[in-house]
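[job 4417] fold queue: 2 targets
>>> target A
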Amino acid sequence: MTDSASAGGSERYETIEVERAVPVALVRLNRPQALNALSTQLMEELLDALRRLDRDEEVRAVVLTGNGRAFAAGADIREMAERSAVEMELEDRFATWDAIRSIKKPLIAAVNGYALGGGCELAMMCDIIIAAETATFGQPEIAIGVIPGAGGTQRLTRAVGKSAAMEMILTGDPISARRALELGLVSRVVAPEVLLDEALRLARRIAERPPVAVRLAKDAVNRAFETTLSEGLAYERRNFYLLFATEDQKEGMRAFMEKRPPQFRGR
């Protein structure tokens, strides 16, 4: 990877690292001494970096991973331990998490170790999860007197089903990467030494596709989790028709008929 400055400027971060190798970018959570615990500062820096990359026309896909032994081992408990319910409401710490949902470019989580609590929730906010064989997933919040608060009860249930989600959330027990694959939480499991290579290869593969079509495809798949089948089908059809207004659609179909590789330009 090259160009370690954040996209769109020379901004440097304290808790994350951003590397650009157009047409993809790599974002590393970088608090290894705290197993990349998701502090307020880290989440704010992550959102800023993702927004910059989302605006960068040269970047077409983003890989998110962690430094050290963890993807992210959860929230920063020290920040929350003595908060009151009113303080938690007024701080609105999940506003940053909600904003990450608005990122339109594909996000690939490369889970290299512990993905627990908020770490598991952050991975699930990405569009695709690739896990190292040594990765561990879990929602252990019940063991400290709370429940998942950044979408864990909702996204995990949609990903693995009610029974498996209930077992993980009510016991707090983690699962292995292989079990996560069996349940459909991750798309593939690979050896730790090739995790980043595989994630970046997938990101580059997606980056070869027409950017507007990728954006609308992501939008349509996400809508499937939030609407009825009939409404989702209508939404999909709208996005399908919209793509006939793009130059890339004309180029893609023309290249198919002319039996040549397409040259997509994101227009």
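>>> target B
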Amino acid sequence: MDIDVKNLHPLEVRLLRHVSLNEEITAERIIDELDYKVGQCNQAFSWLSAKGYLVEQSRATRVLYELTELGKEQAEKGTPAQRIFTFIKAEGPHALPEIASALGLEKSEVGKAFGQLSKAQCASMNEENKAQALVDVLEGEFSLTASLLKKGLQESLEESNLSEDEKQAMAKIAKKRGAASSPFKIIEREDIVYTLTEEGALAKDAVLKANITGEELGSVTSEMLSSGSWKQGSFRPYGLNAPTSRLIPGRHNPYGNYLQWVKDKLCSLGFEEFDGPLVENEFWNGDALFMPQFHSARDIHDVYYVKDPVHCKEIEEPWLSQVAATHEDGWKTGSRGWRYSFDHEFTRRQVLRSQGTVLSAHQLSKAKIPGKYFGVARCFRYDQVDATHGADFYQTEGIVLGEDVNLKTLLGLLKMFAEEIAGAEEVKYVPGYFPFTEPSIEVHIKHPVLGWFELGGSGIFRPEVTKAMGIDVPVLAWGLGIDRMALMHLGLNDLRELFTPNIESVRTRRGN
């Protein structure tokens, strides 16, 4: 067979010269022996396999566990459970808030860790409702966790090297997604073994016969010209018969076009656009929306907290006082409130915006009556990523204020979004629940491949939300997943395709 060795890339040439028939060829070996980078190694394997010079012999998946930043901290200081046990063992019984303050831990962390100690019968609450130790030392799963954390400081841990007890303990402290909140993250690696084919051996012989080393120069640089080093080098031949490069004209991202189209359409209907920062405080992200501070959706598993600075400087008045009073006893809204003591420290805690409705809360304090407002907001909320969910996503958020707006007005708006903006042919409305609207409605659309899924929520703001912000007329509100609307509009089957790194997909996808 004829082999055109002149068209082989230097990475391919060097690899061919280095290996022989019947040898096992792995990425680890080539990286070590030829000083290739991981990307260069994978590229060479891909090119040579496509030419039929290499063939895959085996493929095995390894599971590794690697410490996260949280894990490194716990390896140095101890897990919350270990720190709490050490504290109450040394200092005697203490209330959980006192322990949280003394150890610099979140109250939720202390509660969860104490629950683990209590379940293992290592600690309990005494008659004074203070945590006390029941054993002298922590053993079992606690000591296994400490041992795994110390081992993880030295190197990544391989699942096959762990005992069954260690595997069970690791399963509770390791995550594949959202690993930042766990001590360990799960990493899956594939070990692929290649061998040289008969054609590959012939290609190697042809390379040796042509005296091509892979070190040939491909271009002349200004440094080579100034130093004269090009005179001692040999050059790769130019392929005059090689096809010309593909010309790719620039174009807008189809999803970016879609977002702009939605904005233009709403502006043409008389809506005014609002916007806000990605980092918000708990006050605007939840408190101003009459979400109780103990609501499950405000747990750290749903909201991303900002590490530095932890708190904002201040909350605007009179909104803070009015919202706090509404939570505690209903203020002047006619409500009884949530009947708890409003936490002024918690409300200043900074988070990444978890819902677009935070923009509506801001707008209420300065809205005109009557008025129509909307925003397209990037939101962040921990979620398992799949075809219809993402850990960060766009919402189109809006409010309509006026004496004459009602539920029928809201249904008309939802119909417009579902049919005209999403392009859905089948739409249904179902009752929903949100702490800040009554009544509450969810709108669902049917995708030709994915079936029925929720487009978003809507409703009429409760007086506890509007009156605390100085509004005394009905306010319609909605927060819809614009990423999901784009699935229908752009003819896609997976949200991840909207943000694909595959540039070819972006170039060929139809837009507006």
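[job 4417] complete. Note on B: The radius of gyration is 31 Å.
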